[in-house]
Amino acid sequence: MIELRDLQLLSALARHRHFAKAAEDCGISQPAFSMRIRNLEERLGVTIVRRANRFQGLTEEGEMIVRRARRILGDARALEQEVAAIRGEISGALVLGVIPTALAFTGRLVRRLHQAHPRIVARIDSMSSTAIQQGLDDGTIDAGITYGDSIGTDLRHVQPLYEETYVLLVPDHMTDATGPIPWSRVAEFPLCLLEPQMQNRRILDRIFAEQGLHPRVVAETSGFTAAMVMAREGLAAAVVPRVLVRALGALEGCRVLQLVDPVVSKPICMATLQRDPELPVLAALRDVVTSLR
């Protein structure tokens, strides 16, 4: 009988694509990890991993086994949660992949979820929209909070959440403006923006390009914390989601200006894989999302 632990190790290897990192993630030594993978190959009578001096990928048989392994692990996890639900409690881990612009909203969402179901432990991973789609497909995340136009609906359940709009967070010494400001003015400020591969950055780059603008980017970051600190320290302005400013409140030494001409909004949604039966923790999360509307 194949052990679930071996399937967990194989799933981790497929996710990390690196023996040492997968072993560390699973909490065992690399030699022990490699031995269990080899023992699994011997038991099944196939080569799962293409090896040389390092991991080179999965064989065709290995890819099939990983897909099966993830379904089996998902079913085992669902069984544990369903048994707990029969006892009247919804509990277990819930992994959320979230784009950086939606982290503040997700924090409030998880607070509501915890109020309703205190035994659910949520893990929030900041990810790009591309990584979220991949994470849903390979089962490494349970739900993704991402841009509605970046997620495929095939075999996925998509729930609209809110419309993302943008404001300019700018140091007081850089402007006297107090009201709405056009995007053409934004390009005049030194800016700290997200990295080019992030969907939010692609949205902003498209806005600037459509207006023939060439923004003065002085720093790039993978999240908004550094951008907001730079604005507070008077080093650069930042284009940030309005929902983030609402969650954190006013920042000393900065002003928040609505962006217009054009007014831009992007739909944010929650996406999960369609499965039957559904994980109880996901059903609970979906109920909380519905209650927010």
Structure overview:
By secondary structure, the chain is of the alpha/beta class. It contains eleven helices and twelve strands. The strands form three sheets. Strands 3, 4, 5, 6, 7, 10, 11 and 12 form an eight-stranded mixed sheet that branches. A two-stranded antiparallel ribbon has the order 1-2. Strand 8, helix 8 and strand 9 form a beta-alpha-beta unit. Helix 1 packs across helix 2 and helix 2 crosses helix 3. The chain is globular and about 70 Å long. Belongs to the LysR transcriptional regulatory family.
List the helices and strands and how they pair.
Elements (H helix, E strand, L loop, with lengths): L3 H13 L2 H8 L3 H15 L4 E3 L3 E4 L1 H27 L5 E7 L4 H14 L3 E7 L2 H10 L4 E5 L8 E16 L9 E2 H4 L3 E5 L4 H12 L5 E6 L2 H9 L5 E4 H7 L5 E7 L4 E9 L6 H13 L1
Parallel strand pairs: 3-4, 3-5, 7-11, 8-9
Antiparallel strand pairs: 1-2, 5-12, 6-10, 6-11, 6-12
